[in-house]
Automatic annotation (TrEMBL):
Pfam annotation, one family: STAS_2
Species for this entry: Coralloluteibacterium stylophorae
Protein name as it appears in the record: STAS domain-containing protein
Positions of the STAS domain: 1-102
Lineage of origin: Bacteria, Pseudomonadati, Pseudomonadota, Gammaproteobacteria, Lysobacterales
Domain of life where this protein originates: Bacteria
Length: 104
């Protein structure tokens, strides 16, 4: 598994850098763990990037997990209705969750 630290700031100002970081792992055949324990600030643009990343990896049959999701990210995803899609509806701040496989 490859770990990608999401950092503390997922504001719109950080979206381009987040896109570059995620793009480097989009086709990685090994699993990707998104380390989200330090997230303090979230904007919709970053949630859109995370959602597209998870969707595209899922379509390719590649594993993506969230690790230790911080409350601001979990709450922002919930408010936008993305918590289930991202697999954050059940992950606590101290655990890792696998994003559900796509139904075929």
């Amino acid at each position: 598994m490859t770990a990608v630290d999401l950092g503390a700031d997922l504001g719109i100002e950080a979206a381009a850098e987040l896109k570059a970081r995620l793009s480097a792992h989009l086709a990685s055949e090994c699993g990707v763990v998104l380390a989200a324990e330090n997230v303090e600030r979230v904007h919709t643009a970053s949630l859109q990037l995370l959602s597209a990343f998870v969707r595209d990896r899922r379509k390719a049959g590649l594993r993506t997990d969230f690790e230790a999701c911080a409350p601001p990210l979990r709450e922002a995803a919930r408010l936008l209705g993305l918590d289930v899609h991202l697999g954050l509806d059940t992950v606590a701040s101290s655990e890792t969750t696998s994003i559900p496989e796509q139904s075929k």
